[in-house]
Write a structure and sequence with these properties.
Blueprint (H helix, E strand, L loop, with lengths): L5 H5 L3 E9 L5 E9 L4 E5 L6 H9 L6 E6 L9 H4 L2 E4 L11 H11 L4 H14 L15 H13 L5 E5 L7 H16 L3 E6 L10 E6 L2 E6 L1 H9 L2 E7 L5 H9 L4 E7 L2 E9 L6 H10 L4 E7 L3 H15 L2
Parallel strand pairs: 3-7, 3-8, 5-6, 6-7
Antiparallel strand pairs: 1-2, 1-4, 8-9, 10-12, 10-13, 11-12
Length: about 325
Amino acid sequence: MPTPTSTDAAQPAVEFTDVTLAFDDGAGVFDVSFAIPKQSITVMTGPSGCGKSTVLRLILGLHEPDTGDVRVLGQYPADFTLKDRGHIAYVPQEFALYPRLTVLENIRFASSVYGLGPFRRKDRITKALEMVQLNDVRHRKADDLSGGMRRRLQLAAALIHDGGLLIADEPTAGVDPILRVRIWEHLQQLRDDGHTIIVTTQYINEAEYGDRVFVMRAGYLLTAGSPEEIRKEALGGELINIVLEDPSQTTQATAVLESLEGVHQAYPLPEKPAMVRIRVGDNAPSLVEITEACQAEGIETQQVQPYVMPFENVFQHIVREEEEVHA
């Protein structure tokens, strides 16, 4: 892949400006704006029907917006040439390879479409099939594969591509958890090698693998940022768990902790009688200061440590806030 110039590198890989595309049934995407930097992984997440796949189809030029602008690699998708499309690999949700061809024949066909020469093709095919654990069934027809295997075959067909932009619509759907981790590790390696990757997923916690996360619902982009930024925005700060030696002191500890500068909220957790959780801002007290403040009031702690809330729970916070705003 050619080395980008400094100007090329500064230009977003994908840019949406006030994009709306409405379908007759009321679905679509509405007033969506974002910029995706090159050499990054962007994870789009949200419930089924929230507009994730529609955004991908707009990027690919399969749809045109009713209003607003879409630019991909500096171009309008409607103006893509064959050479432009050669820089983009796509993994659709639906199986789009040849059921009567074997796994190996499908991969060879995909590599030829991408213009890979015989020597590069052989090495890439082997690595791609090993990554998705299909090497042992490479002579089996695609029609005889399970649904999960077909998903893996489609992903392998895209991974042999050496273009700059990889777009994958729910590539880990129907894949077992161990292989899911391997797929994400491979995607991160591709990013490190200079690719730009856009992935949709219904597995909310997979957002953690992205450099940037887009949270969508009902066609709207609710929020965008790094996983850490979104978590902090949704929760109104960062969380710290304090485990007490004596569960009977939780009420006292809650009052002590809430009085500390930089602590926005302190509350006991009913399901964990010896634990108090605090929400802190930018001027948060250190873990040592929290421990010393408790000790000064005769409250001994077993543990004081930051708590990283699973992204699935963060997503629920975001949706709940959005519903309250529009209630």
